[in-house]
Amino acid sequence: MHMAPMTIAPTSTSTSAPLAIDAQGLVKDFDGFRAVDHISLKVKAGSIFGVLGPNGAGKTTTLRMLLGIIAPDEGRCLLLGADRPLSVAKLVGYLPEERGLYPSMSAIEAIAFMGALRGLPLAEGRRRARDLLEGHGLAYAMNRPVRQMSKGMAQTVQLLGTIVHRPRLIVLDEPFSGLDALNQQKLEGLIRAQAQDGVTIIFSTHVIAHAERLCEEIAIIAGGKVPFAGRVDEARNRLAPQVRLETRAADGPWRAALPPGALQQGHHWQFELAEAGVEPLLKALIEGDAGIVSLSIERPGLHDAFVAIAGEAAAADLDRAQEEDRA
Amino acid sequence: MTEGMNEIVRGALVIARRDFNALIRSRAFIFFLITPVIMLGIALAAGNVGSHMAKPDLARTIAVAMPDGDVARLIAAQRRLKAIVPDFPMLETGRAESASGDLLLAGSLRSPVLHADAQDAQALGDEVRLLVDTARQSEDAVAAPLAIRLKPARPHPAAPVDRSATAQLGQMCLFLATMLLAGMVLSNLVEEKANKIIEILTASIPMEAIFLGKLFAMLGMALIAIAVWTALGGAIALLAGSALPAVPAPAVGWPLFVALGFVYFSSAYLLLGSLYLGIGAMAATVRDVQTLSMPVSMGQVGIFLFANYATARPGTLIEGVACLFPFSSPFALMARAAQFPALWPHLVLLLWQALCTWLIIRAGTAMFRRNVMKSRGMGRRAGGRRGRVQPS
């Protein structure tokens, strides 16, 4: 269901919990093009945070700035309380959008190498790599060179390399991209398991369903800006529930209980209704003898909220990206 | 600051270990090791053939100073022997010395005396003995055996001009080694960019650590190669013995000169390598690297020629500039080690070269960050499927 865009001021999430990421006013220009325009993000420690937006919205640039891979032109960022991301690199795991492994390395060596980059001794890295590969059903491919692996297998190896040093913060850029449904499900499980261990996870995606299933909080990025950052239900609550009603009677005193903008088509009605209005509506329909044939009250999904917050164009881009992904 | 340096060193070690293992475990490394040996073998063989074709063998000429009758019999004997052994030495009569000045057969056939230095006596003694025996076939049996009088070996004066030959030899070896090996650094980051590993590396360790690690891995590989080639060269020199031209001993002595050779190779390699790594890091594809390798090689030749020019003018301003200019400094100082015994300039200028290497690495990483570490398409050619500056 697509709706007309609404202008909603950016909000910030609750800051009562300690923050794993605290970014303020990040700006990045590339050759005169403003890719990121004063983005602020607060990610609570131990939460799963989704960065949602179509391709080209500025998600990757934002994540790269958070990790110190590229320096922002303006703004500041604290990662796990440190203003130099590299100083806490040992506590961070990062899966970039463009996956990469050395083709000649074996799975076990690739994972241990990624751990070594984050300060994990090689021997310990190999031991953990063995455990992780066994735990993810890839024991048979331990010594297989990356160049001989399928794309999904290589992607899993890289993901295991991202968590081998047991980071406190995991940043995943489009982690579901390129995975089949089964592997997407496995990845969701892995993300949940990490979060249960108290690890903070921030991931970018253009697939709303993943964010809706996994995240407590999200930031919607469109055109380099964040029009919304907050809880998923808070985003959904920006829109009133949609009521679809079919009555036997076409008219009666109960009609006064329907909102003024309600659309009528014969005996069918469609209108928005605040949560608090449901009970009074039911009472009026029953007492007014409207003869209810059917009544559905639909809470808006995150997609609807996205459309309302980011606009039709951004939503269309998002849908296109999802279609490309599926293809 | 110290923590930052520790982080750089730790990261550099991780990268260096990975790269070094990948380099020396590849099959290409074996080919890399043996290619110069094969080329040297071909060059030596060609040189050997050329030298035989080009000049008469002066060392195989024996001057004869004997009575005329004995000389005539010697000449007749030499002809007989030459018919059997075409390579048999020539005789020079009427002179008290051979053309090469090394061998003189004097006395008489009854009591012949060969004047030669130890080397020539060993090399031609048997042939002279055969010549004398053949010449006096009809002589009585009481003739004395060939006596050999050893002349003192001719001294090789270590004049400055000869040491400059040593200087140039050192410089040439250094140049050839860097020419062969430093250019390889150009393509060193292409793999990471092609495989998109660069983003993981830059998110994990300082960029300087990536550059340093790659440089030291390549340096380690290069030093292994040079050690192998030096060992082979040494073995060839031992086998060839006096056949190789004598080179005057360097002013600092051979052991220190060789040690300084390794040090200056390392320094030249790190200096040029850090520059090449910085330049190569800008290249998005192997084709770009190939395009860059030509001007880079020209630059190396230019630096060598400059250092060579300066070496021929010791103590002048131009030599001072060559010693100070970071890229020519190792070459100029290598030559200096051959010509002058003082060691302190080497210590001071090695520190200077190390500082310059670090500054070049810093500049290279800054350029890399500014020009390559952008958003999507990091490391890819602009205008590709995903543009370099297109954000996501």
TrEMBL record, chain B:
Main location: membrane
InterPro entries membership: ABC2_TM (IPR013525)
This protein's name: ABC transporter permease
Membrane topology of the entry: Multi-pass membrane protein
Subcellular location: Membrane
ABC-2 type transporter transmembrane domain residues: 144-360
Key words of the record: Membrane, Transmembrane, Transmembrane helix
A Pfam family the protein falls into: ABC2_membrane_3
Recorded GO CC terms: membrane
Lineage: Bacteria, Pseudomonadati, Pseudomonadota, Alphaproteobacteria, Sphingomonadales
A molecular function (GO) term: ABC-type transporter activity
Organism: Sphingobium nicotianae
Highest taxon above the source species: Bacteria
Transmembrane segments: 28-47, 169-190, 211-240, 252-279, 343-361
